[in-house]
Design goal:
By secondary structure, the protein is mostly helical. It contains seven helices and two strands. The chain has helices at residues 2-9, 21-41, 44-53, 59-79, 83-102, 128-143, 150-156; strands spanning 112-116, 119-122. The chain has a two-stranded antiparallel ribbon with strand order 1-2. A hairpin with a 2-residue loop joins strand 1 (112-116) and strand 2 (119-122). Helix 2 (21-41) runs antiparallel to helix 4 and helix 2 crosses helix 6 (128-143). The protein is flat and about 55 Å long. The termini are far apart.
Length: 163
Amino acid sequence: MNTLIARSIRLVPAIPPCWYAIPLRLIVGGGFLHHGYAKLARGPDNFIQILGALGIFDPALLAWATIAVEIAGGVAVIAGLFIPLVSLPMAIVLLVAIFTVHWPNGFSSIKLLSVTSAGAHFGQPGYETDLLYLCGIVALVLGGSGPLALDSYLSSARIKPKT
């Protein structure tokens, strides 16, 4: 019975708790990297026009800033590098997306409108996914970047003074 309870609390007790960070870094960092790359692949001018239509101040500057944050932040999170530093601009991008785009669509990120012979048709996503990304970033900031992170290699690499 104790084994059942122990396995219900923690499936693989031998693995240190910090290993949660690796899949979290991959999905959060990979998601940001993918979104930044998609904006570049579709042409930054498209994203600039979208921001202009939303009434965002200086859409060209903020479009490029968003793309840079998503790509650089995504790479940094995947690598486990400077997560507390890159988390702030990443959180700002998410909060702007929530309040300027997704808030009017409600919470749910999946809005099934209909299913036809052509397949499922979905409505505009809500802010659920943005909140999940925010929670992932907060978890990494509070819990650390975990093993196999460049941060741990940088902090352990010390320059020895010459004697």
